[in-house]
Amino acid sequence: MVLGAGIAALGLVSPNIARADFPDRPIRLIVPYGAGGQTDIVSRLLAEAMSQRLGQQLLVDNRPGAASNIAAEMTARAPADGYTIMVGSTGPLGGVNAALYKNPGYDWQTDFAPIGLFCTTPNVLLINTAEIPVKTLPEFIEFVKARPNQLNFASSGIGASTHLSMELLLERAGLKMVHVPYRQSTQGMADLLAGRVQARTLGLPEAEPIKGDRRVRALAVTSPGRSPNWPDVQAVAETLPGFIGVNEFGLAAPARTPPEIIARFNKAMNEALESPTLLAGFQRVGAETAKPNSPEDFSAYLRSGGAVWTGLIQRLGLSAE
Q: How buried is 38 (Cβ within 10 angstroms: 0-12 exposed, 13-18 middle, 19+ buried)?
């Protein structure tokens, strides 16, 4: 009987012992946008830093499409064992996609366990200089206002931050443009450079490589103030007071992932956020490193930001299929 009780007790604690040794194999990090876009850029920087702290590789798995719904549904359906996590934002995790799509394929309130916020980035408003021959945001507003629905803008998908931040700018300025969504942000960038679309907002990490390209001009950034990486580019708020429209990047796991695994990821993320190497990497691409934060902090952030964008979606009657 004593031997049997000992074996039973051993069976009860062994799962916890396994979790204490977590992780013991590589972890899949699902990224909801394509390779080369801003989400991919900042995710790979974080993955490298966290891999060093976890002792296992975070392997980036790009799953673009449907404003990150494809990636979110894959994550929601994955085993809740800590070996699949995703990079997420207010789109899938803060109710924005639920406001846009009748059936996004998951329940944003119950299917995920937030881990933490790791960085934010402003967007930059870019124009094709041959198609829109202006040099400042006020001139852009005047030019577009005189041509309602005659000009178009690209985004990385309906409901993406690059879409909604542009819609917010158009709403605040009283402008009308035609939205052209792309499955991958890099495709939209190629068409902007070629003049097939006239404008777009783009996250700074993805915009860095086109600095100085004469085919495009940066008119304004969507952060509250100017970006240190783009000091000569005004903030939208200098023309439209109070304007802000940043991208946020955080980590989430499938719901029911054991709390100790969530805590292990959160600890590794927060340690990475204090790494000089990661700080320099984010600064290099124009991203602002988040301060160390808890899953609860990230959840509150998502709900607050999601409410702002959901309100915009409702006012404009936006929807997606």
A: buried
